[in-house]
User: Fold this.
Amino acid sequence: MRGAFITFEGVEGVGKSTLIEFAAAHLESTGRIVLRTREPGGTPLAEAIRSLLIGECREGMHADTELLLMFAARNQHLETRIRPALDENRWVLSDRFNDASYAYQGGGRGIDMERIRFLECFVQRGLQPDLTFLLDAPLEIGMRRAAMRQRKADRFESEAMFFFERVRNVYLERASLEPQRFRLIDASQSLEAVQAEVRKKLDEFIAYWEELK
Assistant:
């Protein structure tokens, strides 16, 4: 049986990176081999595409160009890192995956969801996360946390609040449509409370995964 594929989703400032490290350490303590990665990115080529996507673009970037670049990076990521790791029975933890395309390019940019679904089928060929943690918090909290980072905001982080409202709404809609895959986590809680909830949900998933063997 292959390894499990777990993704962490949410808008800016909800603590995905911190919780991925926490989840990875917990899984490794159980003897599992873990690959930590992110989207867009995860490979040298995909990271170069990421630079184009999040960096300042003086000529402006058309929404369709953004979408195609996202899936180009995803294809490289899948074929050179994610699929091989899963086949080697490693557990893959990714900071964002295809749900982000529906949320950011579909919700935020207003691209037709069917066009995103077509690219998903073409690139992913049926591969979906086995478990997705959706870290959710009121936008004011997430944006305030994001603003505290000691770096310049990237092209996405510089969007207006209504952009992130649309992104968050799509995330929540997807979670409601796929409750068997999503675990909705209240990221406005203290870090200790969020970690405890993630650990609990992760342990439940580990038990479920073991039963599948």
